[in-house]
Write a structure and sequence with these properties.
two-stranded parallel sheet; alpha/beta; DNA-binding
Length: about 160
DNA sequence: AGATTGAGCGGCA
DNA sequence: TGCCGCTCAATCT
């Protein structure tokens, strides 16, 4: 399903009441490039709330840690991808790791780490945007500009986030 | 089952 | 700087 929240569109897939996949918030003209589903007009309140949380994550107004406590999600990925994403979950708001850092921890190659991140089904909730290349931003499925935007937002809002701890 | 493909990295000139 | 070779899980064919 696609849910509209504040002029943004968020794609989500639920199994039962568990979120198993989502997109980042996108404009109407962008969303269908990444997510072929129908826009729900009057979504259930709980779906609406999750879409709004994803919007807050996008604008750096909520920590991913807090979002993971609230959202009923399930991470359905192969074993190796799971290992990579478990490390990514531990990256602090406003901080970054490199592909190589994670590769070293898992005794694998940076390319393989990139492959795993590319198929993160829960972007923003699992902050794969916080993994960058050693000498550049690295890639991002939704475009590097979006990655840059999210990281910049988090950097600016970091002080605010710490105040709420 | 084998070939190709990256959201990368380090070395060398 | 720029190229070249290495890497390895996932995705084709």
């Amino acid at each position: 399903m696609i849910v509209k929240a504040n002029n943004y569109f968020v794609g989500m897939i639920f199994k039962g009441n568990r979120l198993v996949k989502n997109t980042i918030p996108l404009k109407r003209e962008e969303i269908f490039k990444f997510f072929n589903d129908e826009v729900i007009n009057n979504p259930k309140e709980e779906y609406m709330e999750i879409a709004e949380i994803i919007l807050k994550l996008y604008f750096g107004e909520m920590s991913d840690r807090e979002a993971r406590e609230i959202i009923n999600y399930r991470l359905e990925v192969p074993n190796f991808t799971k290992k990579v994403l478990d490390i990514v979950k531990e990256i602090e708001f406003g901080e970054v790791l490199t592909y190589g850092d994670i590769a070293k921890k898992l005794n694998t190659s940076p390319r393989a780490v990139g492959m795993a991140l590319k198929r993160n089904p829960l972007p923003l909730i699992i902050p794969c945007h916080r993994v960058v290349a050693k000498n550049s931003l690295g890639g991002y499925s939704y475009g590097v500009e979006k990655k840059k935007f999210i990281l910049e937002r988090e950097r600016l809002n970091k002080r605010f986030m710490n105040m709420n701890k």
